[in-house]
Amino acid sequence: MSTYKIAVIAGDGIGKEVVPAAIACLDRIAEVHSLDLEFTYFDWGSEYYLQHGRMMPVDGLEQLAAHHAIFLGAVGSPEVSDAESLWGLLIPIRREFQQYINLRPVKTLDGVTSPLAAKDPIDLLIVRENNEGEYSEVGGRMYRGLPHESAVQETIFTRLGVTRVTRYAAGLAASRRGHLTSATKSNGIVHTMPFWDEVVEETARLYPEVSLTSELVDALAAHLVLRPWTFDVIVASNLFGDILSDLGSSVTGSIGLAPSANLNPEGDFPSLFEPVHGSAPDIAGKGLANPVGQIWSGAMMLEHLGHPEAADHLQAAFESALREGFGTRDVGGTSSTAEFTAAVLSAIDALA
Ligand code: NAI
Ligand code: MG
Question: What is the mean pLDDT of residues 151-174?
Fold first, then answer.
């Protein structure tokens, strides 16, 4: 039996509802596939911050490093500034563990109605650069409180950073339909984005079976609404990739469906699996949260750990629950989080 140590951080808001739902599904899958998933729970997040003045302990990263993977809900609370919650936990994990790929699949699911009138199935991958770009620590604030108060934040692109994310995205495109789209803005952002374009082009050229299209991100956003089914793999910077993935998941039906993997492809550090959505304080504690994004992230974790059959089984189970008409309010259904989870558990048994 394979044993995996998984660090679980449910975090805040609906993270505390969708993580237990997904763990119940993972436990059932582990039984069927003879996997030993050993979950260790960390109560880090905004409540921890309010008690200790930090989102996680000083040695938090060391504690996490001893695991095969990290399973995260969401962090963020109205009582803690978002910059504090993001930079105190998620961003240090992504950076220190060199999780430079943020992989976000966007796919039409049977039983979920897209808000778009056109109905061609959508199946695309967003590969977001996850370590640098617009999310940079370089910058500062001056003259606080004075009329000439100012703020500067520099975007940092490195050849290493752009090359490795493009290589990963082009490799995925080569294994799929062979189309790679790069999100750019080199008409307006005249230093960093032309550099991004050059390095993406140079790198993609090494994959002759992949066709590369560079699209200005504003037009690309429009195309994601008008004809999302024409995209295969999209490679984007940290900020552009973040915005496009909320858009992408919404055109398939709901942000509550969208999963993501923060990958350290070399396996030097644990990778982290989390839904795209945040802590949704507006619906937290009401049993309304859609657990699909979290469960699907669990399936991506199983795949990453080298168990594609277990991953496919879990994926088929939540897809089957949706197809049977179960669904939370955000996808037009009436199921509570618990009712939907129960339907996935039955589907896991039925498909075993
Ligand atoms: P959000 O994703 O939490 O919510 C946006 C909207 O989508 C809300 O109306 C919410 O009810 C709905 N929604 C989100 N997930 C859902 C689900 N699973 N089922 C049903 N409906 C769902 O984004 P928002 O409101 O901008 O941020 C809330 C907090 O979450 C903030 O503190 C923010 O910083 C944090 N956040 C954390 C992230 C993370 O931990 N990775 C990512 C995004 C936001
Ligand atoms: Mg986001």
Answer: 98
Taking Cα atoms as reference points, which of 60, 161, 156, 158 lies closest to residue 101?
A: 161
Top CATH class, 1-102+261-352? alpha beta
Burial of 224 (0-12, 13-18, 19+ CB in 10 A): buried
Give nearest CA residue, ligand 1 atom 32: 76
Distances (CA, A) of 67 to 7, 48, 87: 6, 21, 21
Confidence of residue 119 (pLDDT cuts 50, 70, 90): confident
Mean pLDDT for 311-330 is 97
For CATH 3.40.718.10, list the domain ranges present in the chain: 1-102+261-352, 114-252
Instruction: Give the number of whichever ligand sits closest to the CA of residue 279.
Output: 1
Half-sphere exposure of 270 (CA within 13 A, CB side): 21
Three-class SS of residue 156? strand
117, pLDDT greater than 90: no
The residues annotated as belonging to the active site are 143, 185, 218, 242, 246
| CA 256 – ligand 1 centroid, Å | 9
**What pLDDT score does 314 carry?**
98
The domain 114-252 having CATH identifier 3.50.50.60: the answer here is no
How close is the Cα of 241 to the center of ligand 2, in Å? 9
Q: What is the mean pLDDT of the chain?
A: 96
Per-residue model confidence as pLDDT tens digits over 269-283: 999 999 999 999 999
Q: Mean per-residue pLDDT for 138-155?
A: 97
Q: Estimate to the nearest angstrom the gap between the alpha carbon of 195 and the chain centroid.
A: 26
Per-residue pLDDT reduced to its tens digit, 1-48: 779 999 999 999 999 999 999 999 999 999 999 999 999 999 999 999
Kindly indicate whether the ipTM for this predicted assembly is greater than 0.90, answering yes or no. yes
Probe target for ligand 1 pocket from 18, 71, 81, 279, with the most ligand atoms within 8 Å of CB:
279
Interval between CA 37 and ligand 1 midpoint (Å): 27
The residue whose C-alpha atom lies closest to atom 1 belonging to ligand 1 is 278
> Which residues form the pocket of ligand 1, taking CB atoms under 6 Å from any ligand atom?
14, 18, 74-76, 82, 90, 255-256, 274, 277-283, 289-290, 293, 328, 330
Count CA atoms closer than 13 A to 23's CA, side-chain side.
20
